[in-house]
Design a protein that fits this description.
alpha+beta; Lambda Exonuclease, Chain A; 5-stranded mixed beta sheet; 6 helices
């Protein structure tokens, strides 16, 4: 178990090429909590249209939506860290895709992201970080500061197999801004 954890923290992340062990304490926030107020008119069809427009492989299915009212979305981002001028998100996954590191190749990870709707999670995390940085970072610019989302499939991470176990997604800034707008704001702005 110790060797496995040691491998994970010494494996360079795909987005920055920096291993977890080398990210300084003052350059990271673990378990960053967020609350997003959702527009009361938010619909699955509008979300699906936006995902389709930006070629994101996600199709949300309605389940008794007319009897449910969603006003807030609460979550936690596993890790946010700064590298250079950018802020990156890391989400850890323990999905079992097989016994070999080759089972954690980019195509297999892409399939897992699609099967488990992790693209939705990644896009929500990006909106949450975008809002956080907009409030906290002077002169924030989405194209300069908002880095990629990285999914770290822990079972496939090893310094000897550094092309395995990690998948990054840099969403188009126009998509993040449109999703942010679609979610809406507490004061209507």
């Amino acid at each position: 178990m110790v060797d496995w954890l040691d491998d994970i923290i010494h494996t360079p992340l795909a987005a920055s090429a920096v291993p977890l062990v080398n990210i300084k304490y003052n350059q990271k926030v673990a378990e960053l909590g967020f609350n997003l107020r959702l527009n009361q008119h938010l619909s699955f069809s509008d979300l699906n249209a936006l995902f389709h427009q930006f070629d994101i492989p996600l199709q949300l299915q309605s389940q008794e939506v007319n009897t449910m009212v969603w006003q807030y979305l609460k979550g936690e981002i596993d890790l946010v860290y700064q590298h250079g001028t950018q802020f990156f998100i890391v989400d850890y996954k323990s999905n079992y895709l097989g016994n070999d590191f080759d089972n954690y190749n980019p195509a297999a990870l892409y399939d897992a992201m699609t099967t488990h709707s992790y693209w939705l999670q990644a896009s929500i995390y990006q909106v949450a970080l975008h809002r956080y940085l907009k409030l906290r970072l002077p002169n924030y610019d989405i194209n300069t500061h908002l880095g990629a989302v990285e999914y770290a499939f822990l079972r496939g991470m090893s310094p000897e197999h550094d092309t395995r176990g990690k998948l990054i997604k840099q969403f188009d800034s126009a998509f993040i801004l449109a999703l942010d707008d679609m979610f809406g704001y507490p004061n209507g702005n």
